[in-house]
Amino acid sequence: MHLRDYAKPVFKSIGCKVDNCIYTEKKSLADKSDAIVFIGRSLGSKPKKLPHQRWIWVTLESSCYTEAAESGGVWAGMFNWTISFRRDSTFFLPYGHAKKRSTPLTKNFTKIALKKTKKVAWMVSNCGTRGQRERYVSELKKYISVDVYGACGPFKCSKLDNEKCLDNISRDYKFYLSFENSISTDYVTEKFWKMFDLDIVTVTRGPANYSRAGIKPEWHINTNDFKSPKDLADYLKYLDRNITAYVKYLEWKNQYVGLFPKADVYCDLCAKLNDPSEPVTWYPPGQLAKWFIDGHCIPPNDLNFNT
Q: Which topology term describes how it sits in the membrane (predicted)?
């Protein structure tokens, strides 16, 4: 199996039930490979596809920022399987997932919350997005204090010390805006998962159904549940004043731990390659783009306010 520009699984070490697959980056072995994995945003020139091979299209990019590279030309009809954050991919690869702790933590979140002195923080580097999150935040700031860190705001964090910066934000602030750059089916990125284990309440703006990404309603405050940024601000201010209600959004963190992408996807891939009963399937020309892009880059519907 040839994984190009992606990850480097060692199938035996990650505990795959079927572990006879071998990873290589050597393009000279492409003709001998049973599967070749291509990164959707950097397809480049197309190698020769052999009859026995399975070609796999991989992306972790939003549908709004993905080019329909296979819809025509030499790549049309070449791909058999997909790996992405979409639940209906051949192989599901989310940005993160939650696992119940075998031994729960015993953090006192009331004490932690009482030490917080600030309301809302947002760390962001892309100041103009398809999802227009910047417009939403601009309206939100009219009703509640939002401190913006990074390239789009006055507060700075060193990219070399990002973890410390997030720890400081978690210590000082009650809420963190985990707003995706676009609204795309099942698209929940590290913007959510990097805050999972921190002592802060996450406010999300992204796909309508976060539960498809394995995220429970009590784990976040979803902008989809509010008619306007003002209504959201009113609720955040209510939680700011009511420590008992606020802490309910943190207490579950004693029970769960956030983990980053599973190795299971590679085990599933290896098993599928070894299954003699697995039928040969492929995406006909244009179907991959239709499946991933058409109707899945969703225009925001929460920006109907006077600015």
A: Single-pass type II membrane protein
Identify the sign of the CA torsion 135, 136, 142, 144.
negative
At residue 69, the pLDDT reads 56
Instruction: Tell which wins on pLDDT, 55 or 14.
Output: 55
Give me the chain's average pLDDT, please: 91
Are 124 and 152 in contact by the 8 Å Cβ rule? The answer is yes
CA dist., res. 110 & res. 123, Å (int): 25
Q: Are 288 and 82 in contact (CB under 8 A)?
A: yes
pLDDT exceeds 60 at position 2: no
Under DSSP, the state recorded for 298 is P
| Average pLDDT of span 243-267 | 92
pTM for this entry: 0.91
Residue appearing with tokens 């783009």: 289
Which string of DSSP letters, residue by residue, matches 52-104? Answer: T-EEEEE--S-GGG---TTSSGGGTT---EEEESSTTSSEE--S-EEEE-SS-
Tokens representing residue 80 in the block? 């058999």
Alpha helices per DSSP H over the chain: 109-114, 133-140, 162-172, 190-193, 229-241, 243-247, 264-274, 287-292
72, pLDDT greater than 90: no
Domain spans, the chain: 2-93+262-292, 97-259
What are the residues whose beta carbons fall under 8 Å from the beta carbon of 155, sequence distance 6 or more? Answer: 147, 148, 149
The CATH homologous superfamily to which domain 97-259 belongs is Glycosyl transferase family 10, C-terminal domain (3.40.50.11660)
Spatial CB neighbours of 22, under 8 Å, sequence gap ≥ 6 = 1, 11
